[in-house]
Design goal:
mainly alpha, MetI-like fold, 15 helices
C-alpha cells in the first residue's frame, strides 16, 4: 500500500466530528490507568528515599533502583514471591478446572434430565447466590475447624481440623459453579435435543454426549467461566488469609496483606515500595488475562440466550 493510499484510508476512518469524543475517552483512559502508572513509578524507589520524598502526581526517584522488581521476579528472603506466585497459580488452575467441570455437568443435568423437583432445586441453588460471601466466613471456619478426625479432632472437637493445611484449598475451593451452571443450562437448552438422540442411536453414552457432542458447542461459555473464575481465584485473599497461617500456604494477595499488616505494627518501618511492587505483580496477570480474553466474556454471555 502506497503512502497516498494509506493517507486516504486514515482520512476516511477519521471523522472530525468524533474528535471530542476521542479526547474524552483518552482522558478517561489515562485516568483509569493512573493508579497502575503510579505503582510502576513507586517501584523504582528505595525504602529510604520513599520515606524522605514528598510524592507528587507522578513521582519518580532521583536514584532509581531495580531492587523491588528483582524481588518481584526472583524472590528474596523477606518476600518469597516465587512461592506465593506458585501457590496462586496452582490454586487458580485447580479451582478453574473444577468450576468448568461442575458447571458443565450441572448445566447438563438441569437442561436435559427430567426429574421431580428439578426446577425448584435449580431455583434454590440460584437463590444461594443472593447470600453475601462474608456471611459464610464464620460457618466455613467452624466447618474447617471441626472437620471429623482431622487435625487432632476426636470426631468433631479437640483439634484444628483442616485449618492451615492444603485441604483448605482442595476441599474448600471446589464447589458447584452456580452461575456457570446457569449459563451452561441456558446454552444447552438452545441445542436441539435431536442431536442427543442421534448420538444415542450411534451408541454414544451420556458422558460421550456431554464431552464430545455438547462441550464443543459450549466453548464460548466455558471460556467465559474459565476467565471469570481464574480472575476471582487469583485475586482472592479471604480464603488463605482467614483459614491459613503458615507461610508456605500463602497466595500472593494474602501474602501482600500480611506484609502490609506487619509493616503497620508499632516500631516497624514499612517498605512500601516493595509492597506496592508486589501488588503490581498481583494486578498485571489479571489485567493481561482480561485484555487478551475479554472478547470471550461478551461472546459467552451473548451466546447464552434467555428463553422466554
Amino acid at each position: 500500500m502506497s503512502s497516498s493510499e494509506l493517507t486516504k484510508k486514515i482520512a476516511v476512518q477519521f471523522k472530525p466530528k468524533y474528535l471530542f469524543a476521542h479526547i474524552v475517552l483518552l482522558g478517561f483512559g489515562l485516568l483509569l490507568l493512573y493508579p497502575l502508572i503510579f505503582m510502576v513509578s513507586v517501584g523504582f524507589f528505595s525504602k529510604e528515599e520513599f520515606m524522605t520524598t514528598v510524592l507528587g502526581l507522578l513521582p519518580f526517584p532521583k536514584n532509581p533502583t531495580w531492587s523491588n522488581y528483582l524481588v518481584l521476579f526472583n524472590g528474596s528472603a523477606d518476600a518469597a514471591i516465587q512461592k506465593y506466585f506458585l501457590n496462586s497459580t496452582l490454586r487458580t488452575i485447580y479451582s478453574t478446572f473444577w468450576a468448568l467441570l461442575t458447571a458443565l455437568l450441572a448445566g447438563y443435568v438441569f437442561a436435559r434430565l427430567k426429574f421431580r423437583g428439578r426446577e425448584q432445586l435449580f431455583l434454590a441453588l440460584l437463590a444461594t447466590q443472593m447470600i453475601p460471601a462474608t456471611i459464610a466466613l464464620i460457618p466455613t471456619y467452624l466447618q474447617f475447624a471441626r472437620w471429623p478426625f482431622a487435625g487432632g479432632n476426636n470426631i468433631f472437637t479437640g483439634g484444628t481440623g483442616i485449618l492451615d493445611t492444603w485441604w483448605v484449598y482442595l476441599i474448600g475451593g471446589p464447589s458447584i459453579n452456580i452461575m456457570g451452571a446457569f449459563l451452561v443450562k441456558q446454552s444447552i437448552e438452545k441445542v436441539p435435543y435431536e442431536l442427543d438422540e442421534a448420538a444415542k442411536v450411534d451408541g454414544a453414552g451420556t458422558f460421550r454426549i456431554i464431552f464430545q457432542i455438547l462441550l464443543p458447542l459450549q466453548m464460548p461459555i466455558m471460556a467465559f467461566i474459565a476467565i471469570t473464575t481464574a480472575l476471582g481465584t487469583w485475586n482472592d485473599f479471604i480464603t488463605p488469609f482467614f483459614y491459613t497461617s503458615s507461610d508456605h500456604l500463602q497466595t500472593l494477595p494474602a501474602a501482600i496483606t500480611r506484609l502490609s499488616s506487619a509493616a503497620a505494627s508499632p516500631g516497624a518501618v514499612p517498605n512500601w515500595p516493595l509492597i506496592i511492587t508486589l501488588s503490581l505483580g498481583t494486578t498485571l496477570p489479571a489485567l493481561i488475562m482480561f485484555f487478551f480474553f475479554q472478547k470471550y466474556i461478551v461472546q459467552g454471555l451473548a451466546n447464552t440466550g434467555i428463553k422466554g
